[in-house]
Amino acid sequence: MQNVEKQIEIRILSEPKGSLLMAKDFSDLGSPEAIRKALERLVKRGVIIRVAQGIYVRPKISKLLGQLIPSAEEVVEAIVKRDRIRTIPTGSYALNALGLSTQVPMNIVLLTDGSPRLIKLGKRTIKFKKTSPKILTAKGKISRLVIQALKEIGNGNVTEAEEKKILDLLRKEDPKDLKHDIALVPVWIQKIMKKAVEDCSNPSF
Predict the structure, then answer these.
(1) Cα 140 vs. chain centroid, distance in angstroms?
(2) pLDDT score at 134
(3) Which of 100, 111, 155, 201 has the most other CB atoms within 10 Å of its CB?
(4) Which InterPro entries match (predicted)?
(5) Domains and CATH numbers, the chain
(6) pLDDT at 201 over 90
(7) Cβ distance 58 to 21 under 8 Å?
């Protein structure tokens, strides 16, 4: 067991401070139980900090802020990269990401083609919700957020100010990606999104 702990510690110390680490990152060093116990001891020794179940961080200290803990967004990014999954923010998280809401959601919900799971991160939660592959085929970084934001607002509830903001954002999207994504959504969302391409030189709708 000590050997497993030492090997894990050596690997952790080779990572920059502030790096997020997953229990699965060390699966080649021992059994799941041996790794779990080794990580528990490393937490007690202060080598790492437990952020959530199976997720740890190598401590990084700021002179001004003290101990820095990864944000929910950084945890999401680490999981997406490790598991090689696709995700799309939904609900109030999508609204906030687009600047349509100033409220930072306490509960983040992401549609994914990976395993469904719920992660508790302090007072916040991250929920990975299994969805149909079609929804995840949206190509545009902006349009995929817009689609989910509009679904959250609801048909008939989009204000003029919200629509203007959305159209301004969509005009920055790659026209080819926008055209592709428009074909994936309900008619009422299509009508809004199509307005963003009316000024393009070669609209083909």
Answers:
(1) 15
(2) 83
(3) 100
(4) DUF6088
(5) 2-68 (1.10.10.10), 72-135 (3.30.460.10), 137-197 (no CATH)
(6) no
(7) yes
Distance (Å, rounded) from C-alpha 82 to C-alpha 50? 18
Q: Residue 125 is encoded by which pair of tokens? A: 């939660």
pLDDT at 57 over 60: yes
pLDDT at 73: 87
Angle between helices 141-153 and 91-98 (to 10 degrees): 120
Q: How does DSSP assign 135-152, residue by residue?
A: GGG---HHHHHHHHHHHH
Provide the 8-state DSSP code for 115: -
Cβ neighbourhood burial of 57 (10 Å; 0-12, 13-18, 19+)? buried
Supply the pTM of this predicted model: 0.77
Q: Which is nearest to 126 in space by CA: 74, 85, 83, 67?
A: 74
Nearest Cα to 23, choosing from 3, 51, 2, 45? 51
* Helical spans, DSSP H, in 55-205: 72-83, 91-98, 141-153, 160-170, 175-182, 187-194
Q: What is the CA 36 to chain-centroid distance, rounded? A: 25
